[in-house]
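Subject: for your reference before the review

Hello V.,

The reviewers asked for a structural picture of the protein, and I figured it would be easier to keep everything in one thread rather than splitting it across files. Below is the amino acid sequence we used in the manuscript, unchanged from the supplementary table.
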Amino acid sequence: MLRSHELGIAKPDPRVFEHAAQVLETRGEILLIDDSPQNCRAAEAHGWTSIEHHDNASTIGELRQRFD
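And here is what came back from the structure prediction:
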């Protein structure tokens, strides 16, 4: 797997999300946790689900709400 700096692209470039989906070999649901609202919006525009990370407690709470 190539890292984004090796690809010469980085979030929020849509190609990053396409590359990650190929590496994961999925077109199914993918969840991004990121502290950048811009990156979360870009992931969602690519069909992913995202959680904007503010702190561990709120991110864990959000994960529990979605997956419990």
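For the response letter, the relevant points are probably these. The first strand starts at residue 31 and ends at 34. The radius of gyration is 13 Å.

Happy to draft the paragraph if you're swamped.

O.
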